[in-house]
Design a protein that fits this description.
This protein has 2 domains: 7-195, no CATH class; 214-365, Butyryl-CoA Dehydrogenase, subunit A, domain 3 (Up-down Bundle), CATH 1.20.140.10. 52% of the residues lie in helices and 10% in strands. The protein has helices at residues 7-23, 26-34, 38-55, 73-85, 92-103, 195-230, 242-274, 286-290, 300-325, 336-345, 353-365, and strands at residues 123-126, 133-135, 142-147, 157-162, 168-171, 180-183, 190-194, 232-233, 236-237. It has a 4-stranded mixed sheet with strand order 1-3-4-7, with helices on one face. A 3-stranded antiparallel sheet has the order 2-6-5, with no helix packed on it. A two-stranded antiparallel ribbon has the order 8-9. β8 (232-233) and β9 form a beta hairpin. It is globular and about 65 Å long.
């Protein structure tokens, strides 16, 4: 299996990288970390969001006849890896998944009220129907729950709630780029769909979260290596010291293993959903896609392996980046803590490493 990206896929990544360089630079991220108020978000964050929207991020896997880009999950994984490398904040993944609810051919007919989902709106997905914590509360227009605690389709559903009617109290977040608020009252959820659609979105979310984590890991690695080349001790770059070399080498190993696991899971998702390997080889029609059964997507082991390895890589590389930077790594003005805190804050999305490790162990035991 050749997992090397094609020239077209690399060109797509370059386009995303250019947007990130323009709108999500280190300077702008620190501005948001210091004050992610609605006023600052409108000034700094919204232009970047609009650039991603114009690039077609939120309709990347939507068929061209529905106004989308017509690519596959392989390309989506590459894009989210780049977003992670640049620590792009906000409800990007949740909004991407919600776009599938209204436009994806596999979910055709799963949602009756598709008017709830519009390209001009932002969405957040919370952990469970009992959760009152909402990330990015000032940015999102609606909140959803994919209430599917296991791979079983039983009792799994998608629920929806507009944020405009919620009374929210801001909290001190772990990740300064991910504001959090608590709902003062129990949220009244509206049921949108049953388990097959919820399970499908959870699988896609798992792959793309792992891709984002892999990007985080590589971003932290690159930052550590650049610093190790520049920072001198005893008139010698610290990167020449064996202890620092070993940290960076271990980081690189985890990044490469995580990337391979993510690419395999993305290829598998494309094969199951579109009967293809990436969009380049796929000329599958919408009719063929709509005949694919949600429950036929049997990728649990690949997804779990990707999530475990990517999560481990993101946290290890975040910690390693802080360590290589030494005392500077702990300061608010430096970037290492942004990588580490983002790695921590998304580690449990679509299943923690512990959950997926247990799933893999059960598979091996059987």
């Amino acid at each position: 299996m050749n997992l090397d990206p094609t020239d077209e896929q690399l060109a797509l990544v370059d386009s995303v990288r250019a947007v990130c360089a323009d709108y999500f630079s280190s300077e702008k991220l620190h501005q948001l970390a210091n004050d992610f108020s609605p006023e600052i978000a409108k000034e700094i964050y919204e232009p970047g969001w609009n650039a991603l929207l114009e690039l077609g991020l939120f309709s990347l896997v939507t068929a061209e006849d529905k106004g989308g880009v017509g690519l596959g999950f392989c390309e989506a994984a590459l894009v989210f890896e780049e977003l992670g490398r640049n620590i792009v904040p906000g409800p990007v993944l949740s909004t991407f998944l919600c776009g599938l609810l209204s436009k994806d051919d596999i979910l055709n007919g799963a949602i009756d009220d598709i008017a709830l989902f519009d390209d001009s709106r932002k969405y957040e997905i919370v952990a469970s129907i009992d959760s009152t914590a909402i990330s990015n509360p000032d940015l999102v227009d609606a909140v959803l729950v994919l209430d599917s605690p296991s791979s079983s389709l039983d009792n799994a559903s998608i629920y929806y709630c507009e944020t405009s009617g919620l009374k929210l109290t801001s909290q001190l977040p772990l990740d300064p780029l991910t504001p959090v608020a608590l709902a003062e009252e129990k949220i009244n959820w509206k049921k949108l769909a049953d388990g097959e659609a919820a399970l499908y979105l959870k699988k896609v979310g798992c792959v793309l979260t792992a891709a984002y984590q892999t990007g985080l890991a590589e971003g932290a690695l690159n930052l550590a290596v650049d610093y190790a080349k520049q920072r001198e001790q005893f008139n010698t770059p610290i990167g020449s010291f064996q202890a620092v070399k070993h940290i960076c080498a271990d980081m690189l190993t985890l990044v490469e293993v995580a990337r391979a696991a993510v690419y395999v899971s993305a290829v598998g998702l494309d094969e199951e959903c579109f009967d293809s390997v990436g969009s380049e080889a796929s000329k599958t029609t919408a009719d063929n896609k709509s005949n694919t059964s949600f429950s036929a997507i049997n990728l649990d082991d690949d997804l779990s392996a990707a999530k475990v390895m990517a999560g481990k890589a993101a946290e290890f590389c975040g910690e390693g980046c802080v360590q290589v930077h030494g005392g500077m790594g702990y300061t608010w003005e430096a970037d290492p803590h942004l990588y580490l805190k983002r790695a921590w804050s998304i580690s449990h999305r679509y299943g923690s490493a512990g959950y997926h490790s247990t799933s893999l162990a059960e598979t091996l035991a059987n």
